[in-house]
Every structure is written in structure tokens, then in C-alpha cells.
Amino acid sequence: MTSRWTSRALAGLCVAALANWTWADAAGKPWDPAMGTAAVKGKVKLNGAAPKRKPVDMGSDPACAGMHQEPLLTETTIVGDAGQIKNVFVWVKRGLEGWVFKAPAEPVVLEQKGCQYVPRVSGVMVGQSFKIRNSDPLAHNVHGMPKLNSEFNIGQATQGGENVVTFTEPEVCMKVKCDIHGWMVTYVAVVPHPFFAITADDGTFALAGLPPGEYVIEAWHEKLGKSEQVVKVEDKESKDLEFTFEGK
Amino acid sequence: MSDAHAAHAPQSFWSRYVFSQDHKIIGLQYLITAMVMALVAAGLAVLIRIQLAWPGSLGIMMTPETYIAIVTMHGSLMVFFVVSLALVSGFGNFLIPLHVGARDMAYPFLNMLSYWVIVPACLLMLISFFVPGGAAAAGWTSYPPLSALKEAVPGSDWGQTLWLLAMALFIVSFTMGGLNYLTTILNCRAPGMSMMRMPLSTWTFLISAVLGLLTFPALTAAAVMLLFDRHLGTSFFLPSGMVIGGKVLPHEGGTPLLFQHLFWFLGHPEVYVLVLPAMGIAFDVNSAMSRRAPFGYKVTVVSLLVAAVLSMIVWGHHMFTTGMNPYVGEYFSIMTVLITVPFAVIGVNLIASLFKGRIKFTTASLFGLGLISAIGLGGFGGLYLGTAASDLYFHETYFVVGHFHMMIGVVTFFGTFAGLYFWFPKMFGRLMNERLGRVHFWLTIVGTFATFLLMHFQGMGHLVRRTFESAYDFQKPVTGMHYAITFFSVMAVAGQFVFLYNFFRSIWRGEKAARNPWNAAGLEWTTESPAPHGNWRGPVPQVQRWAYEYGRNGHAEDFQLQAEPDRVGATEPAAH
Amino acid sequence: MKRTTRGSADAHYLTMFFAVLTVVTVAGFAMDFRPAVVTPHGRSIDGLINYLMVVTGLLFVLGHAVLMHFVWKYQGEGPADYTPEKPRTQWLTALIPVIVMAGIAEVGVLLLALPVWGELYGPTPKDALVVEVTGKQFEWIVRYSGADGKFGKTDPKLVDDAENPLGLDENDPAAQDDVVKRGVLTIPEGKPVAVNLRSLDVLHSFAVPAFRIKQDVLTGFTARAQFVPEVAGRYEIACAELCGLGHYKMRGFVEVRKADEFVKWLADQPGMFE
């Protein structure tokens, strides 16, 4: 039986020691929201043909199929009529190294509903609680496969079951899947600051409250890849960016 | 000679009771350690039963990954740290020198070390519950790749490593003990104690020691290779092409089947290491309690040896479904069912050893008689599993769980209890309370037999083992039995608390016993109760006969001790 | 010597216990909780199990009858009335269980079980439908070869649990029409089926209790299970080898359809890359 307290305490001790050792000289100024007067907004588009969304085969668990009137469609690449791409993770990759950001107390919630992860892409800050909830009346398994953070593999056998994990390293993005329902996939991005957004159906994003400066903004998509752009914003300025991915 | 021995007797508390080299103290140390580990392992069993009867009732404490860790540790602790510790190490140590007429084991210092190596092994197993990922969760059989890759199940993180290290220490301890048993029995017998005059229990300890010495190395090798695969990137058991945790693993060239062969090469003889001493003890106890010699002593010795030899060449019956060469599978099936032959002989002999006897019912003899029934119930189930084609149906179902629990859970425990009630006077000079003993006996026999018989029925319905809850419709006819099984298993566990209270209370407050309260004929009863350091105050007795000289044959007493001058009309078979 | 003492409570209760045990054991096995069997070799296995139940049942009852008789008859304290048996008697008595057990056991193995073993592991019938089932934590992935009758190449590096769970190579022409299904093996009634079994990760075991089929799956090795499903219907696949925390939920289905329905169904399924 896992003593969550003990293993967390052990992990915490190790992290604290490591942090002390590695980040001692990376001291930045504590973030002051009053400094955030600029913004970067924009949209993400696909150039070319969007791959067809196929119905998800839920044969492994009839209880899952039973929760949907019509079969779910795959969510790997969701592109609107005008080429706008959904579920793109846009974040400030470089430019905020001088600041130290505190993680909010509120958790980010990942839900398992209808044998699907909601949302498809989540953003969470380093040290922020990431709460995973099973809202289905059946068992799920949350198996996180990060490259830089600790792996986690949790069984949630009953409806309402919740587990909280926290991440110690920035990582864009880690894959989290359900081993019981192999079609269930979600991506979690761990960032050291709150300047990130996930595009909705309209493919737009907005990073507001940025301090003036030069930034590298990255757009990440689970299938189409990554794209970076450099942007410079002055005090009280808002700039627009457009990211374009190539389709087949 | 006895004075010289007395002059070397240990004086301090530490050398008398902690780092003792006296086989009797060491035997008791093993027994009490086994009791502690049994409390843990039984607690785990109760958790399993609660989850099965009322799935989800334990909330967040019982996740699917925790469940299989509990199942794994329940099995691992019970097989190695309870049954082996109590029966083979506990009783073997206590009885062998007394039974063969030696003052102590051949290597007393090594004997002391064997116990103190077991203590860290126990601690490692217990600590493994609290490391990241929790305790090992790949089953007590610990098959790779599940046990080799931490991405496969949380218990395969630290927990599995601690398990492997604990097992390595266990094997070291068992090897030390086995060497002692073998040497003492072969070389340290008293004058007149030929091999065929030894009690049957001594034969079984000898066989268990030899079996263990011959077969544990296979598990050692498997454990080392598994540790290497886990930590050094080797591929003994890991083939190419595995995709786990989203990664393609770089291993190449290994096969999980190799581990299974190595594991079961030990694993099958191991269960005979456990079961044979229980049967040996039953012969000793039952003969004293029914006032007659065992029927077919020589036949039984031969059957024990045949069973032991056969046990080493049948391990593949645990692997019928693996896809081994079918001819190999057929060979294993033909040989496995032959093991029923010596066991049937032993069973018949146990029953025939009551013929025209005069059975005194004590807690010891009740357990000794219940053991005979347990051999029948468990043993016959072996045919269903040893026949390869029927095993295809029963493999990995509760039929297997019911079968092995009857054999290495009931037969072994009954042998242990019979021995404890019977030899308690020899250990402590007192008797255990018989009324509490009856309560213990009835709670245990009803609880265990009901539990494991019902599991056989669940197996007929193909209830799959190691499952957190029932997710299959085909099992529905038999899942209702979970309630009854949980009830009876809790009854059985409750009975053990009665026993523990009785045992410890009787050490200090039990009725004082005479030197030979059962009027038994074995050599151990020629010395005081409790037996002193050096076993006999005077010189070691000259053995005149076998250990089972019962029957009046015209004399006043209906038994004669092994080391008394001969009386006319001895019943010992064929002069030596 | 005539018995003068009456039975003690212990002898009474112990004998009663053995009697109840014997009755419950025989009754419980007679209740036969096995799911209905729908394959010919499965019927042979069931026949073998019935044979074992009858013979072990008889021996169990006989053994307990003797045990109960002895416990009851020979109870009581005092010296025993027996004369030690001659060695010859002991060896001859042993012959009885030797001959009976060896006979019963080997009749079962050699006469009843061996033919089943031969059928399961013998040559695959030429007209068998060959299907592939891959076990992975914690699903069964089924693959048909499609119209070209060839199974396309797979590569572990191409495995994507959601989109391409078998890692089919899109560039392989034979893989284009491979039909991949999650969790459901659809097969025709009355025709031999050969299932090639693989694993992608840890050990699993493909078990269909209604067919009396069980075969472990290992990575790096393709096992085969073959059978003839005789009755249309929906049956469950269970995983019969501990494979991780989702082991208990690794449930699949076998859909046995009437032969012509099956042909139509298979033709309707889209290929992996079509």
C-alpha cells in the first residue's frame, strides 16, 4: 500500500534539495502583475487539407459506447471550415526568465467523462495541483508518461474518484492516456508561468498581462507539430500573431 | 562431556535469548517471527476479502494497483515468511537435534546467523509497502515483463526491487538452515539412531532441506537476472518490440519464459518443502495420540522420497498455457499426475495408522486428523490441474487458488498447530489450554475448509484470479459465494487470535506439564520438559529402537521410549 | 476387546464435520457452475472434467467414510488393541493406492486428455479463418487480413494507442486493407478459426471460457489458439494472466455470427488506411 504522505514527503525532500542545488543562482524577481501591460493575441490556421475525423472504436468497453448516442469522432486534429485549428497549446517559451511565478492554489481539473478526457489539452503551472477526476460510472486508468516529470499510473475504479498530482519540471507536452480505454488520450503542458492558452473551436488565443519585452511564442499541436515566432511588445501594446501549420 | 557443555552455556540475556546458538531458542525465534508475519499476511487477506465481497467499500485505500500489491504480498509473506518460517525453520530447528539425539545442530553459529539474516529480509518486505510506487504488485510469482518494468505497474518501481533483495536474503538464510539440517541428520545422530529409526518428521525435514538446497539456486539466478533487467538494462527476460508507457523499449533477445522455468523449478519443489514436514508431524502426533505406530513406516519413507524426486521434474505444469512445445507439456502432465501416487500412499498410511488404535482427542490430535481430510480435499484437486487439457480450463481461476490454499495453507497450518500443541510442553514445560484449543480448532477447520472448498466451486465457474472486482458476466453464477467466503475467512482469522492468546498466556500461566505428558515414545521425551540447554543433562542416550514403540504386547505400559533397555516383543520392523 | 466407553463430544463433532464436508463437496461439484460450452474440443475437456469429478468424488467419499469410521470406532483413551502389521502387509496395502491412483490418473491424461491436446496443438485445418489478436495493457486488438489475405507489416515504433494500436506500416501495401477492431473478435459459426496471438507489452492470456480456450500471449512470440465455434452468440474474452492494474478489466468479446452474415459483415469493414 502506498503511503502517499511518505512518498510525497520523500519526493518533496529530494526536489527541495535538488532545487536548492540547481536553482540557487536562477533567482528571479517575484512576479508583479502591475508590470503586465502588454498582450500577444492571434490565431492558428491549417494550410491545406484537414485529415478526416474518424469514429472512435469503443468496442473494448460497451459501457462507453452506451454513453453516446452517436459515435465520438477522433480528436487528434480538429480543424474548422476556415482552417482554424482547435486544441493548439500556445505559450511563452522564452522571455520570462527574469520572473518567478507562484502557482495558484486552485487546481486545474482533468475530467474523464463519457470515456473521453475533457479537455484534450490542459495547461498547468509547475507546482500547481492537477486534479484528475473520474466522472464515469466505470473504471479508468490515468497513466501519465512524461519525459521530465515523474511518471504516474493511477487506477480510478469508481465514479467520483479524484487524484491530485503536481509537476516539478516544465514540460510541453506530456501524454496521458487511459490503458483500459486505449483511445483516451490527453496532453498536459507544464509551464513555469501563467502565460499560456489553448485554442478553442475558433482557433484563437490571447496572452494578456505580459510585461513589455521580446518573447518567443510557441504553438504546439499533438499531431501537426510545433511552430515558433519571435515578437516584441512595448508598454501597453497588443500584437497579433498568426501561426500556420501545413496539412497533407 | 555434559559438564563441559554446561560450562559453555551462554550467560547473558543477549547470548541466551537474542543471539542464541541453541537450536531450541532459534526455533522459537523463527516461530514467533512467523506469527508476527502471519498477522500482517492475514490482515492483507482480510482486506482482499472485504474488497471482493463489497467492491469499493474501502474507498480510496483500495485502488486496483493497491489490490494487486496486497495480493502479491499476501502470497509472498505467507509462503516464505510464515509457512516456511514456522514449519520448516521453526520446527525443523527445534526438533531435529532432539529427534536424532544430538546436543545441538552441527553448526550452531551458522544457525544463529540464519535467523538474523531472516530478520532484515522480513523488514525489507514490510518496508516495501511504504516506498514510492508501493509494494511489489506482479504476483508472488513476479513474472517479467510486468515485474521488470516500472511503467507496467506502480509496484514494479521500488517495491519489486526490495522484494527481490528480501528474497535473496531469505534464500541465504534457508541455505544456511538447510546445510545445518542435512549435516546434523546425516552426521550427528546419537549412537543407535540409524536412519530407519528416525521419526517420520525428521525424514521430512531432511527431504525439505535437500530439496531446498537443490532448487533455490534457480530462483536466486532468476532474481539476480531480474534485478539486472530492472536496473542494468540487460535483456534476460525482455524480448524486442515491447511498447510500454508510450515508449518502444530497447531490449532484445530475452524471453519471459526463461523466468517462468527458473521460478517454477524452485516453485514446485518449494510447495513440497512446505507440505512434507506437515505430514511428517502429523504421523508423529497421530501415532502418540492413537497409541500405535504409523502404518507402513518404510513405505512412507519411500513414498516421501519418490514424491520429492518427482517434484523436481514436474515444474512445467504451472506453464501448460504458455505455448511450450506440446510434447513437453504432455510429458509434464504424465509425470505430474504420477505424484498423486506417493501422496495417495501417504494418505492411506495416515488413515491406516488409526486402525485399531485408541484415539485420544486433544487439540493436537484434532489438527492431526483434520490434516488428513485436508490432504484429500486439496490433493484430489491436483488431478484437475495436473492433467494438461483440464488445466486449460482451470488455469488462473479460483480452482487453483482453492487448491494451493488447501495444500500449503491448510495442511501446513494444521501440521504446525498439531506440532505446537503437542510439543509445547517440550518447549516451555507447560500445557496449552485445551478448551481454548477447541475453540481455535473449530473456528479454524470450519473457517478454512469452507473458504477454500467454496473457491473450488468458484473455479468451476471460471472465476478469474487476481481480479480487483468481477467484470465478466460468465462469472456471475459464482460471485455470490464471495460473501460466504469472506465470512468464513474472517472466522478462520479470528480463531488465530484465540490461538495466539492461548500460546502466549500458556508460556507463563499454562498448567505445568510432566516430563512426558502424552506418554509418547520419541527420543525427545526422554529428556526434561522444557528441554535444557544441551538437550540432555546427562550423557546423550543410547538409542535402542525406533520412535514408535507403542502397543502393550503383554507389558504394563503401552509404549516404550526410544532409549530404554529392550523389553521382550518389540514391534520395531526388521532388525538394524 | 469390547468397547465400553461412549463417544466423546470431539469424536462426535469431528465425524459430523467430515460427513457434512463430504456432502457439501459432492453437492457443490455436482451443481456444476461451468458456463455452457460451444466447441467440440471444449466438450471433450468437459467430459474429462466430468470423469475426474466422478473418480475423485468416489475416492473422496470412500476415503472420508473410512476416516470417519476409524475416528468413531477407535476413539477413547487407553492402550491400543493392535498388533503391528507385517512388512508384507504394509507393502501390499500400498499397492492398492498405487495401482488405483496411477490407473485413474493416467487413464485421464493418456486416454481422455491427449486427444484434446492433439486437436488444440495439431495442424491447423486448411479452411480455417486466420485472425490476429494482440493483447496490450488493457485491451484486445483484433486484426483481419482483409481482401488480400495478407497481414501487413507492423513496427513497434509506429504504435499509437489511440490511432494505430498495432503499429501498422502505412507504406506497406498489404496493410492497407487490414481491418483493425478494438475488443471485439467477430467470427463465423461452424468454421474453424485460428487466432494468432501476440502481446505488445507484458504477459497476458487469451481466455474464452465458453470455448474452453486459454493461451498465454508473450511479446516476441506468436502463439496460436484454434477452435470451431458451433453456436452463434456473444461470448466474453477474459485476460488470464496478471498484467497490471487494469487486468481485471481486460475484457473482450467474441461475436459468433452465422456464416453468411459474417462474410457480409467483414466486407463492410473499412481497412486501416482506406
Summarize this, please?
The complex is a heterotrimer of chains A (248), B (576) and C (274). With 248 residues, chain A is mainly beta. In chain A, 9% of the residues lie in helices and 42% in strands.
The run of helices and strands of chain B is HHHHHHHEEHHHHHHHEHHHE
**Beta strand count of chain B:** 4
Terminal residue distance of chain A: 49 Å
What is the rounded distance between the termini of chain B? 27 Å
Strand-pairing-aware structural class of chain A: mainly beta
How would you name the oligomeric state of the polypeptide chains in this document? heterotrimer
Question: What is the strand content of chain A?
Answer: 35-45%
Largest sheet of chain B: 2 strands, antiparallel
Q: Can you identify the CATH class of the largest domain in chain B?
A: Mainly Alpha
The coarse overall form of chain A would be: flat
C-alpha Rg of chain A (nearest Å)? 19 Å
Examine the secondary-structure arrangement and name the CATH architecture of the largest domain in chain B: Up-down Bundle
Residue share in β-strands of chain B = under 5%
Write down the CATH class of chain A.
Mainly Beta
Question: Describe it for me?
Answer:
The complex is a heterotrimer of chains A (248), B (576) and C (274). Chain A has 248 residues and is mainly beta. Chain A is built from 2 helices and 18 strands. Chain A has helices at residues 4-22, 62-65; strands spanning 29-30, 38-47, 89-94, 99-100, 108-112, 117-118, 121-125, 129-134, 140-145, 152-156, 162-166, 171-177, 185-191, 196-198, 204-210, 213-221, 225-233, 238-246. In chain A, the strands form 5 sheets. Chain A has a 5-stranded mixed beta sheet with strand order 7-13-12-9-10, with no helix packed on it. Chain A is flat and about 55 Å long. By secondary structure, chain B is mainly α. Chain B has helices at 2-7, 13-18, 23-53, 64-100, 108-127, 158-187, 200-231, 256-290, 297-311, 326-338, 340-352, 363-386, 388-394, 398-428, 434-460, 476-479, 481-509, and strands spanning 243-244, 247-248, 430-431, 511-512. In chain C, the strands form 2 sheets. Chain C has a 5-stranded mixed beta sheet with strand order 3-2-1-5-8, with no helix packed on it. Chain C has 2 domains: 9-76 and 87-121; 129-268, Immunoglobulin-like (Sandwich), CATH 2.60.40.420. The model of chain C is unreliable at 1-6 (pLDDT under 50). At the A-C interface, loops of A face strand 3 of C.
